[in-house]
Design a protein that fits this description.
Length: 153
């Protein structure tokens, strides 16, 4: 179990973690301007992070989810996603969206296990928006897979 808290605007974001999920510092800096950063801590040390950003009046998007490599595969990612869903629910959002690469096999599994459903594909998103090729799990990351969690009435 880890403690999750919202980072204050005065605190420095955990760049090492943020760049695990998104290798472009420029892209991350852009969504941090209007997003809220939540840090997962264990014994006072940041081991996980996510960014929550309103995209529409009733929709919020998880822009970045990362867990320090030593702590991956132990349920911390699920805990971060559950926390994000709970935060969105408390704030009255109708949907939570998330996007990930076509090559992000483990993330696609995790998000679906957390109740997200695939809603679309943004073809060539990563080749259009990133200067360097991204390769994960032996696959070129080209397309953004979009998923959505909808709250039941």
């Amino acid at each position: 179990m880890m403690d999750i808290r919202k980072l204050t605007k005065e605190e420095t974001p955990p760049w090492e973690l943020l760049l695990l999920a998104d290798p472009s510092r420029a892209v991350v800096e852009e969504y941090l301007k209007s997003g809220n950063v939540y840090v997962g801590e264990k014994s006072g040390k940041a081991i996980g992070v996510y960014v929550l950003k309103e995209t529409k009046k009733v929709v919020v998007e998880i822009m970045n989810v990362a867990v320090q490599e030593d702590f991956q595969g132990k349920g911390y990612g699920k805990q971060l996603i559950a926390h994000a869903i709970n935060e969105a629910s408390k704030r009255g959002y109708a949907q939570v969206e998330i996007g990930t690469g076509n090559s992000s096999i483990h993330q696609l599994k995790l998000y679906q296990q957390c109740g997200f459903r695939m809603t679309g594909i943004d073809f060539d998103y990563f080749t259009r928006n990133y200067d360097e090729p991204i390769v994960e799990n032996g696959l070129l990351c080209r397309d953004m897979i979009r998923l959505c969690y909808t709250f039941e009435d």
